[in-house]
Amino acid sequence: MSTPILEVVDLIKHFPLATGLLGRAGSAVRAVDGVSFAVQERETLGIVGESGCGKSTTARLLMQLIVPTSGAIRYQGQTVGTKALPLKEFRRQVQMVFQDSYASLNPRLTVEDSIAFAPTVHGVSGDQAVRKARALLDRVGLEPARFAGRYPHELSGGQRQRVNIARALAVEPRVLLLDEAVSALDKSVEAQVLNLLLDLKDEMGLTYLFISHDLEVVRFMSTQVLVMYLGRIAEVGPTEALYTASRHPYTTALLGSLLSMDPDNRRTQAPLAGDPPNPIDPPPGCRFHTRCAYAEPVCSTREPDLGGVGLAHAAACHMAHPGTGHSRAAGRVA
Amino acid sequence: MTKDKILRVEQLSVTFTGGTKPVRAVDNVDLDVARGEVLALLGESGSGKSVTLRSILRLHNEKRTRIDGRIIADGTDVTLLDGDALSRFRGKTVSMVFQEPMLALDPVYTVGRQINEAIRRHESVSQDTARTRALHLFERVRIPSPERRLDSYPHEMSGGMRQRAMIALALACSPKVLLADEPTTALDATVQVQILLLLRDLQRELGLSMIFVTHDIGVAVEVADRVAVMYAGRIVELGPVRDVLRTPRHPYTVGLLSTRAHGGRLSGNRLPTIPGSPPDLTNLPAGCAFAPRCSSVTESCRTKAPEARAVGAGHTVRCILQHPTVGPK
Questions:
Q1: What domains sit in chain A, N to C, each tagged with a CATH number?
Q2: Domains parsed from chain B with CATH numbers
Q3: Hey, which residues does A175 pair with through a beta bridge?
Q4: pLDDT value at position A21?
Q5: Are strands B65-73 and B76-77 parallel, antiparallel or unpaired?
Q6: Helices and strands per DSSP (H, E), number in chain B
Q7: Chain B residues whose beta carbon lies within 8 Å of the beta carbon of residue A159
Q8: Which residue of chain B has the CA closest to A202?
Q9: ipTM of this predicted complex?
Q10: Which residue in the set B200, B270, B274 is minimally distant from A188, CB to CB?
């Protein structure tokens, strides 16, 4: 396999908790706790999980918006933040689109100025940057003559998100991180933006990291999917394999929570009870064992791993690997 | 026929007058809910679904809202209630579950105390009786270790548990109608299913009538007997959930059903879309509000808003298109 365009090695982020007078030292929210994955060029890696699973923290770590506790991020084999790949250059290659389309735009800049700003930082002349901004507005479906001079509050949510996409593309990045980028949009508008993203990807040869809580949308967009639970990877694999033959009970439960869309075959049982536990004090062993229907003693004592690097479809579950001591441990090699 | 309708909304229009221009958020809405029936109000942001729901409890600022039409709940015209009568009505006849329990519950009182207060506000019972009833409610909404949880503050509970607590609070005075405003939207997928199933079970066991506001057609399918699809303040389609899902008749409903990413996709496929964006309520087109986005639009659509007409048993649509449109499935 060729060098992945983006690679994350053993990424960890612990947010220390503010300590009171008698504060417990060492207590921390273990938001991301040992996450490794690689994205090949022109793939779309979907990241799914429930609130608190660490998917947004992972995105922010990737963009270096927050500093990791430990771990490395490599772009085309080079570690970010070194002499070979300074942060500024990395950010030209990797851009992000956020969920809140309004909060991510400067309310005092016209959308044209917002889009043209980043290229000037990277040495493009003002004139050229404006021309580029207009071309991009046109490309994301906003007629420049009508929209270039507008302010964010004069646009609808869908239009603003198109502006955010144009702005991210202004520095000609190779990778886009889309963090719940369509989640705040109405369904009829969401479909338009998803189609736009697919078109742009084909046209510009982009690589996407598509983070969402919406399993249907992730399935539609992604070539690979990564499922996170309480700061760790539960399962990773090619989209259809993961959706049709999941190997981690958590993935199966997530998929079992999808709505039926059939009034004659409504859901009759919730696949999981309760909420995800608190990431401040995650359960020992497998983090999912407290909600897992197949949990055995080994699950609460030993933490399962994904079982080797570079596997196409892997699950961090004792049942997925032979010889783990779980009675349902697979004979097959994952 | 009208006897078994516990709630009737007739010619309801809601206009917000606080801004520079009046905004007509709800426009001539007619609805009814039978005893033991679940009606889903489906729509996107600005469609008027939540405004309709809130009008039933008169939650809008009276000074900045003009409400026309009638709302008859269990024989009472809600629009005529005032002062004490309105307080007695809220929670007792009709009650509500909100989207964000963290905002709807009072952060400085334990949830048990909030339920006690609601019960004792409506009925003269002792603290102990109220507490026992609160405990039963917590058991009913399946909160684990309910005795202990009654003494929790909202922030000490998880999102799913808070929503269960709010459902318990809403049911505290055994209302006849339960209104639910996107009660699962803020929840994770695995928790959403739990809450939907809980609401469905409670509704059946208690014979509740429910209006369920949602933007997610999947949620409507999971809980509702009938669906009303709203667009720009009007109900554009209303019918039994099976009919609306399988033979949608309004182009907007057809569009909503097909734009939903559901199941796998062959690589390279694109989603069918509805062009444009939801309309600006301060600047609605003269005729059908959906006309600017409609692929089957005709000249008359732009001049006159279509009346609701029957297209099946209990199935009405506000569209002049005669041919039945075929849904995606």
A1: 6-320 (3.40.50.300)
A2: 1-93+175-260+272-329 (3.40.50.300), 104-174 (no CATH)
A3: A94, A207
A4: 60
A5: antiparallel
A6: 11, 12
A7: 277
A8: B268
A9: 0.89
A10: B274
